[in-house]
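Dear U.,

Please find below the material for section 3 of the report. The protein was modelled together with NAI; I have listed the sequence and SMILES used, followed by the predicted complex structure.
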Amino acid sequence: MPFNKVAIIGLGLLGGSIGLAVRERLPSLETVGFDADSDVRSRARELGLCGSVAEDAAIAVQDADLVILCVPVGAMRTAAEAIAPALSPGAVVSDVGSSKERVARVLAETLPDHTIIPAHPVAGTERSGPDAGFASLFAGRWCILTPPAHADEAKVGALMQFWRALGSTVEVMDAAHHDMVLAVTSHIPHLVAYTIVGTASDLEEVTRSEVIKYSAGGFRDFTRIAASDPTMWRDVFLHNRDAVLEMMDRFLRDLGSMRNAIDAGDGEAMFDLFTRTRAIRRGILEQGQDDARPDFGRADHTQETSE
Ligand SMILES: NC(=O)C1=CN([C@@H]2O[C@H](COP(=O)(O)OP(=O)(O)OC[C@H]3O[C@@H](n4cnc5c(N)ncnc54)[C@H](O)[C@@H]3O)[C@@H](O)[C@H]2O)C=CC1
Ligand SMILES: O=C(O)C(=O)Cc1ccc(O)cc1
């Protein structure tokens, strides 16, 4: 392993999972954590998410050769400012943010003299906080690196090696392309889930108890996604605004087509789309890309993971 000491800033689902995964898969790598919330720091110590938890971000990054920012994308600047004075000159600074172009810009502005290699482990759940972390989160999942064009190849290779050691399959991508792809595969699906659950709860005739009572089907899956962390997702939509708007316009056009098909009684259009999408789902399952949650496959998994 090309790194000796990793500092994890933000000890929620992602930061906690990295700490636990390093402990399990890279036991000789020292981990130091920090979180802005003192309750999270205490809980992280109790759970043993890192070898040690510092009381200050600057102390956590001292002598670290890899620093991973695991905070909401809107908090990246504050987190980067806090570590700036204490960073080792040769340290690799990375992150796990769900959107990449703006985060990369913020980190480059805040830490102009450091090597920044943004990353996005495409692995997560609807849960957040230090208790949500688990060591196998990244196993069999993609981790997308979006290094700037001039990035030091040896350092990009070192970060790839780190994520592969945690079980991920690593892909390198341009940040703008990442943001477009993730807008349609992750960000808009979350927006759809938040909206449909909001719509259902707003409908006067559908009371809260009826929503819960009749939520056995597809709606129940939407409620899982719609339980995702509000701060994190607000920040994703504020940061990936342009790509989300572009993909949302496309989606709204396609939704409009489905509306027209229903209005016109065009069963063939519906059947064609539903057949195509079923094949996509089967393809995903054949590749072994199912669900990251450890309890996936149990009929009651949504009850287990709800907060
Ligand atoms: N939740 C998910 O499924 C996934 C999340 N991500 C990304 O990972 C990042 C972290 O998300 P989660 O771990 O889910 O969130 P989380 O809410 O579980 O943890 C974030 C932690 O960051 C701390 N924090 C906030 N500002 C800070 C600062 N300035 N300095 C130090 N700590 C600070 C918070 O106190 C919190 O404990 C986000 O950027 C998110 O977009 C990426 C992949 C999956
Ligand atoms: O819980 C789910 O279904 C997710 O989609 C988790 C997730 C959330 C955000 C990411 O950037 C990556 C993965």
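For the text of the report, you could mention the following: DSSP finds 13 helices and nine strands in the chain.

Regards,
Y.
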